[in-house]
Amino acid sequence: MYAAKALAGALVRVTLIDKRNFHLFQALLYQVATGGLSPGDIASPLRAALKNARNVQVLKAEVVDIYPEKKLVFLRDGLLSYDSLIVATGAGYHYFDHPEWAELAPALKTVEGALEIRRRLLLAFEAAEREPDPDKRRAWLTFVIVGGGPTGVELAGALGELANSTLRGEFRTIDPAEAQIILLEAGGSILATYPPDLVHKAGRSLEKLGVTVRSGQRLVDLTAELVTIQDVASGREEMLTSRTVLWAAGIQASPLGQLLAERAGVETDPIGRVKVEPDLSLAGQPEIFVIGDMAHFEGRDGRPLPGVAQVAMQQGEYAARLIVDRLKGENRPPFEYRDKGNLAVIGRNAAVADLGFARFSGFMAWLVWVFIHISYLIGFDNKLLVMTQWGWNYFTRRRGARLITGGDPFPLVEVRAESAQVVTKVT
Amino acid sequence: MYAAKALAGALVRVTLIDKRNFHLFQALLYQVATGGLSPGDIASPLRAALKNARNVQVLKAEVVDIYPEKKLVFLRDGLLSYDSLIVATGAGYHYFDHPEWAELAPALKTVEGALEIRRRLLLAFEAAEREPDPDKRRAWLTFVIVGGGPTGVELAGALGELANSTLRGEFRTIDPAEAQIILLEAGGSILATYPPDLVHKAGRSLEKLGVTVRSGQRLVDLTAELVTIQDVASGREEMLTSRTVLWAAGIQASPLGQLLAERAGVETDPIGRVKVEPDLSLAGQPEIFVIGDMAHFEGRDGRPLPGVAQVAMQQGEYAARLIVDRLKGENRPPFEYRDKGNLAVIGRNAAVADLGFARFSGFMAWLVWVFIHISYLIGFDNKLLVMTQWGWNYFTRRRGARLITGGDPFPLVEVRAESAQVVTKVT
Fold it and tell me: pTM of this prediction?
């Protein structure tokens, strides 16, 4: 979207292909999953965003393949040719060697995933309220989040707030604060890319919200009610009963990247990102650019740039400008990333921010976070009042978008013997 | 919900059973279907609304049967006994003798139905943008709405605005204003319960929004692409090609009403509503009350009260007060409905309002409508800023909640011979 916007008004014809009709502000998706925001609040229709870019046509379509030698893009239901191609289909989660876990542990990556997580979280509390058996009730009130990156940390924090603040006083047989929230991280610590002092503060904030962080522990088996985790160092296994497991681990670039790399004869890295040249193009294919989460671009320190929105936005604008410069016969210096810092939020009043020149934590970081996110969302879709309301609700711990939609997958409680007996007498 | 609220603090134990965990403000559901609002904006979690009513427990459960002689309510997964019972499971649409039409023509009654309608409306414009065949494109841009009551009229008006204002300038090969919107009403006129002069004005407002009203015409056959309608007077049939048919006809009371009436030995009317006594109880079962859309209560003019929110709210409060009075050994005069008027809105700046003492149409009626709805929603969930933003967006014809979610049911365009040929050459 940033590339298309940067090409608006240039003497080129642009086709923006997306299988979704909206741009999603991923950074707040965990707020949808915990009932703080509606999907419409963090999504902007692509057509509306590009309405005034008369040289840009938006097509809702799915790209299934790319043939560089013929300069063709294959859609699921059609075909397009190109002169220059920018590929930015991002990254998703993968379930290691266990695709069957996808059903059991929904991932926080798409709107549908977030709504499924919201449904399961809210249904778990509803089921617990009706469940007379204390063991089964505990299983409903035990939540496991797999993956201690920013997404997993933010989701765990928001779930902690939901249980400890938002739902307080709304139930009559359970206390939502009894909920056990377990954040699993196979690596040595959560938020691996953050400085150690901020990681420490993040861990303390999570604890205060009732989240148990288990670093160095990984998921080894999963069923509808049982979670088996293993201590990476000792190899010791442990079993937990939990009815709700959520997924935020195993980042993998879009499979289109692997396909494109094979067709173009370039390399990918272990998580499937396409290795790109200093100008973001592919070696030997100067008219193809790969940007964002699916690109492996080495920064000054020799490490690939992180998969964050800032990188994708800057790369999109760079690729667009390079295309325009080439048409004018001009050159452009290699892409350089300007790091504006990292932010992660752990519930109301607690966040960690690493802005490079300064590090914050606690309420100040939270204020910075709220300000940046609200200003970003307002910028892209004029959602001023919605965002202000949300900021206020967030501050007062209210969550209004707590709808359980879609069918119920199961009876909330098992019909017990004494009930069945009464039924027999009546009929 | 109004009954439960009225019983808060009384010396009774109240259990509120609902299969959904939220209260839905039905009157704005068509705004969800046309991308103006998110479901979260017009829904309020029951638990939050009743948080401070300490004698009220909310259970998310589905009632499948009632046995008056044993004073038992059967849930899908459990059983409850009662001393007094208030039944208010409302009404839905039915597809006459054609249950198979449910798949082809989603109804505007639930959140899921509204999101499915939104998905189909937006996908139709996306498919039209990509469809090169003019006949097929016209089928994508032809929308049929079945049922000319307030819901059908409001949906048709909002769809007219979507096509003529909101989407203007967002497409490159189609003009969304080419859309044909057909509102079918089998009866003699749309908005049958409104005074003739307001009906006339509503018809003119719809015309201005590009809606063709076809009164006295009914649907007789439906497939994925063909709609067969029949003129009720002449019996003449006509076929239209349309890919999008929406349902807002054939109101029928919740099937639980029929079941309860059989068990309690009372009558139902032709649309399945349970006939109730002057105090809303059932004849011979003074501890069971049936209220709202599923009750047949004769007003002063001998006609049953209409299925509108005002009736349900007043009846809920009445039943609650009657129960409290009975416990005190006091009597209560029969229920009397205080009609506060009727309102239907047909797009921005156009509405018809019949407040009894005065009738409005046009911009004044629209202002009345906006004011009443915003104040109602603010009252029940403090969505002040969200609603203000929405009022503003509505006035400026913006619609931000235009997400197509869920899977695509079909390829948007058929892959054509020439594409297939190129594919053959490349591979």
Answer: 0.90
